[in-house]
């Protein structure tokens, strides 16, 4: 795989981060959890462009999933992954909200 994931930070604050991400052909995201030092992490992923083949998102448990385009989940609790992108690229607008315990 020669192309790299390109991430543009659109907003970064203590509780909310917004990213525009391009995943290239050949890329995959291995199963993982997103670690947080405190609070509860929520992610809302908006798939702006699906690849022509591959690049399917999978999560142990979603809070909301509308046609695999709008997905709300707890990445700190539930393992998630994206299968290998076979053809094309995957564009994602991702909102990460950390709800503090206090």
Automatic annotation (TrEMBL):
The top of its lineage is: Bacteria, Pseudomonadati, Pseudomonadota, Gammaproteobacteria, Pseudomonadales
Q: Which UniProt keywords apply?
A: Oxidoreductase
Per the record, a Pfam family? Answer: 2OG-FeII_Oxy_3
Q: Which organism is it from?
A: Marinobacter qingdaonensis
In terms of superkingdom, the source organism counts as: Bacteria
Q: Top EC class per UniProt?
A: oxidoreductase
What EC number(s) does the entry state?
1.14.11.-
Keyword check for Oxidoreductase: yes
Domain Prolyl 4-hydroxylase alpha subunit Fe(2+) 2OG dioxygenase per the UniProt entry, residue ranges: 20-95
One GO molecular function term?
Answer: oxidoreductase activity
Q: Check the record and name the InterPro entries matching this protein.
A: Pro_4_hyd_alph_FE2OG_OXY
Name of the featured protein? 2OG-Fe(II) oxygenase
- The residues forming a coiled coil are none
């Amino acid at each position: 795989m020669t192309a790299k994931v390109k991430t543009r930070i659109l907003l970064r604050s203590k509780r909310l981060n917004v990213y525009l991400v391009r995943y290239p052909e050949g890329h995959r995201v291995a199963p993982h959890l997103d670690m947080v030092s405190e609070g509860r992490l929520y992610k809302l992923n908006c798939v702006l462009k699906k690849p022509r083949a591959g690049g399917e998102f999978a999560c142990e448990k979603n809070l909301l999933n509308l046609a695999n385009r709008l997905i709300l989940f707890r990445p700190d609790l539930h393992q998630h992954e994206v299968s290998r992108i076979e053809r094309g690229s995957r564009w994602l607008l991702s909102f990460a909200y950390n709800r503090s315990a206090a």
